[in-house]
Write a structure and sequence with these properties.
heterodimer; A: 6-stranded mixed β-barrel; 48% helix; elongated; B: 355 residues; alpha+beta; 6-stranded mixed beta barrel; two-stranded antiparallel sheet; 12 strands
Chain lengths: 436, 355
């Protein structure tokens, strides 16, 4: 009888049931979408903040004191220590290799330009491609570590170590200030005399003009191998800039790893703190020192923490609101059916029986609504993710059972209070009034 | 029907069902507090996050037109930034870059630097960790034939160029390098949404220098702010929508419960419009009460959010109060308008006697 009544209830009052299911579905959809967006927000924001530029810088350990202004080393190109270029792919073998978004090597060659002014030829990678151990192709370089750079024209092509190969001459990307001073534009030729190096004047074809607003606006960027040839330092580089996705630092991250117990050390090592990623880079590239660029790394963590806290609160508010909407919908439904409850009681159903009936009904509604809501929420999260971050937020599959359970619980919670009230009343009174 | 009677009718209708109605008012209060907390947080977001983003460093740089020149320090007054003069000299045995700056002003930009020792006073200096200089040393600085000395008050690790520089007071380096009143560049930190305006203003004020916006900082900040704002905006809309829905279901149920009352009123000669007006007045009162109460609890909630997220209270904006009360009132009235349509279908005889 119990199940027949339940089935009949759904078959007969379709529109009323549909309304309750719709309310639950709406609540579940909001909950799914908000949770999915919340779970994705840390990662997405971290990626957004990577456009501030590299957050780890790697230099040789046994180096002499660099003569450095605005990130550029003005020492003679042959002085001091270097990092070997063929070690670099090792960066993509560290524990947090998937968090290494991009990296770029730098080698600086001071040079004198045609108007007698000094500049620095910066050798680096542009869209440098190599194959990882996993067989995956990986593209990295200066434009990848600095997504906010504005290049008018295009980045130089790397034509091997030769300064000029037939069909592919030396190409350069020129800083905007320098370009406007020397009236350079894509297509024109730029001549220079490298300092501290043998060899006379050289020239390159300008293929792009770079605007950053920083020191780069006064520099000339050339392929790394061309700079190595100029400095007579084949396969060497002076500095490595790494852009890594990191986690906000907490009190634990600021502890000195040397003072940690083995268990703590493992936890630190396996968390994507900027300090642990820097330590892993140092392990992968012996003879180097990896430092966090504190102004970027520290502030990035602060901003991430704030955004996550904000989204946590907003998500909690959305969940509370969804629960409120669902439970008020089920409550209103039970209220409406007081006379039905009285009738059941009058016909001899025990209070438990009636309660079980309504709770079972609410459970069926909760599951149906939860399922529909999860589907709609999935779609909604995709839209919100694409609109805000250009990548859909995908709710993890664990969310489905969670949403279903919560949907059932919340609709029970809504049904419970009015149900208790209705059961407390005498059937006869309700039935007489209930005719209204 | 005269006015005092109408008032009494509304008052009794509310008072007699106070327990049932308290649920509706509670829903309205919750709705209104969420709305006012969200509006306040949203309105305060830009200013608060902008504060965070400013710490990413200066976003405007003022430098001489020709990078070979140094510019006049008089420009500093017009820009209000942090001045720098770079000179290659010797610190002890090593050739290093000596950076002269306004140490007091730099300190506010340099809060992320890791410093061993203390921030230097005017006559002291701060050495980068790659210079190999020891904390507490008396450092001999030389530029050409001139020399000066300073005590190393601190050794810094910033991860940037400062790690291989020696920082000292601007006036001291100007004197040492025989470049009185000269600067290499000025760093200015403008509000993230004011970068372009500030750049244009400075460019007009100091035509002899070049004023550039640091694209990575300025643009990344703007983009990140935009994303955060969009996310909060979408979430707020979703929350407000669903809160409104919850309130509407509760209020709607309350009207439907009163079929018998409606029957009596109709039997006594009340017109549909009069009865509808009574219901609207009732929910209007509820909406107003819920709105006022929710508004203030929402502002308290926003304060708490501010402390939880930014460790600082949020600015209370007076315009939020009337706005939230109006929204709540509108939701309450809209929620009533749906079930009120069913008034017309109520036939007193049927309702009062039963089928």
């Amino acid at each position: 009888v119990f199940f027949r009544v339940l089935r009949e209830s759904f078959a007969r009052a379709r529109s009323r049931q549909a309304l309750a299911v719709a309310a639950i579905a709406l609540g579940a959809a909001v909950a799914t979408a908000m949770l999915a967006v919340f779970l994705n927000v840390g990662d997405r924001m971290a990626r957004e903040l990577r456009s501030f530029g590299a957050n780890i810088t790697v230099v040789p350990a046994a180096d002499s004191v660099p003569v450095e202004i605005g990130g550029i080393d003005y020492r003679p190109a042959a002085e001091g220590a270097f990092i070997a270029e063929d070690e670099l792919p090792k960066l993509k073998t560290i524990f947090w290799r998937h968090n290494i978004v991009a990296f770029a090597p730098y080698l600086y060659v001071p040079a004198t330009l045609s108007d007698g002014s000094r500049t620095v030829l910066v050798g680096t990678w542009f869209n440098h491609e190599f194959t990882l151990a996993s067989g995956e192709r990986y593209v990295t370089g200066a434009t990848q570590t600095n997504p906010a750079w504005k290049v008018e024209g295009r980045a130089p092509r790397d034509c091997g170590g030769q300064v000029s190969t037939p069909g592919c001459g030396l190409e350069a990307l020129v800083g905007q200030r320098l370009a406007s001073r020397l009236r350079q534009q894509p297509g024109s030729a730029l001549a220079w005399v490298p300092e501290f190096a043998a060899g006379g004047p050289q020239s390159a074809t300008v293929v792009g003009v770079l605007t950053t607003g920083g020191a780069e606006d006064d520099q000339v960027f050339i392929p790394l191998r061309a700079a190595q040839a100029l400095a007579a330092q084949p396969g060497k580089l002076r500095r490595l800039q790494v852009s890594a996705l990191t986690q906000p630092e907490d009190a634990f991250a600021r502890r000195d790893p040397k003072t940690m117990t083995p268990v703590e050390y493992d936890r630190w090592y396996c968390t994507a703190y900027v300090s642990s990623i820097a330590a892993q880079i140092q392990e992968a590239l012996p003879g180097t020192v990896a430092r966090q660029v504190r102004q970027v790394a520290q502030n990035e963590g602060e901003v991430l923490k704030r955004v996550q806290a904000l989204m946590l609160l907003v998500t909690a508010a959305a969940l509370a609101a969804a629960a409120l909407a669902v439970s008020s919908a089920t409550a209103a439904m039970v209220m409406e059916r007081r006379s039905e409850i009285a009738l059941m009681e009058a016909l001899g159903a025990s209070r438990w029986m009636v309660a079980a009936f309504f709770l079972a009904e609410a459970a069926v509604q909760g599951i149906a609504g939860g399922l529909a809501g999860y589907g709609v929420g999935f779609w909604l999260a995709g839209i919100v993710g694409r609109e805000v971050f250009d990548a859909p937020a995908v709710p993890p599959p664990v969310l489905l059972p969670l949403i279903l359970t919560v949907a059932v619980l919340v609709s029970w919670l809504g049904a419970l209070a009015p149900l208790r009230g209705a059961l407390r009343q005498t059937p006869a009174v309700v039935l007489k009034e209930g005719r209204v | 029907v005269n006015a005092p009677f109408r008032l009494r009718l509304i008052w009794r209708a509310l008072w007699l069902r106070k327990r049932r109605l308290s649920v509706a008012v509670l829903a309205l209060v919750v709705g209104a507090s969420v709305a006012s907390a969200l509006l306040t947080t949203y309105a305060d977001l830009d200013r608060k996050m902008a504060g965070e983003f400013r710490r990413f460093g200066a976003n405007i740089v003022v430098s001489p037109r020709d990078s070979r020149d140094a510019m006049s320090a008089a420009l500093l007054e017009q820009t209000g930034g942090v001045p720098f003069l770079y000179v290659v000299g010797r610190a002890g045995e090593n050739e290093v870059v000596l950076a002269g700056t306004d140490l007091a002003r730099l300190r506010s930009l340099a809060h992320t630097w890791q410093i061993q020792g203390s921030w230097p006073a005017e006559h002291e200096c701060l050495a980068g960790e790659r210079t190999g200089v020891k904390l507490g040393d008396r450092l001999l600085l030389r530029v050409g034939a001139a020399s000066a000395s300073c005590r190393v008050a601190g050794v810094t690790a910033s991860g940037s160029s400062e790690d291989s520089q020696v920082l000292l007071a601007l006036a001291k380096l100007q004197e040492l390098a025989a470049l009185p009143g000269r600067l290499s560049l000025i760093q200015v930190s403008a509000e993230p949404d004011q970068v372009e305006a500030t750049r244009a203003r400075l460019a007009g004020a100091v035509p002899e220098a070049e004023v550039r916006a640091l694209r990575p900082v300025a643009e990344s900040t703007a983009r990140a702010l935009l994303k955060i704002r969009a996310m909060l905006y979408v979430s707020s809309l979703v929350i407000l929508g669903i809160v409104g829905l919850g309130v509407a279901t509760t209020l709607g149920g309350i009207v439907l419960e009163r079929k018998a009352d409606i029957g009596v009123m109709k039997a006594l000669g009340g017109t549909d419009a009069q009865i509808a007006a009574l219901f609207f007045a009732e929910s209007g009162l509820l909406g107003l009460a819920g709105g006022v109460a929710g508004c203030f609890s929402g502002l308290a909630l926003a304060q708490w959010v501010g402390h939880a997220v930014y460790q600082a209270g949020v600015d209370l904006r007076p315009w939020v109060i009337p706005q939230v009360i109006l929204i709540t009132l509108a939701v309450a009235l809209a929620a009533t308008s749906v079930p009120v349509r069913f008034l017309r279908g109520v036939r007193p005889a049927v309702v009062l006697k039963g089928e």
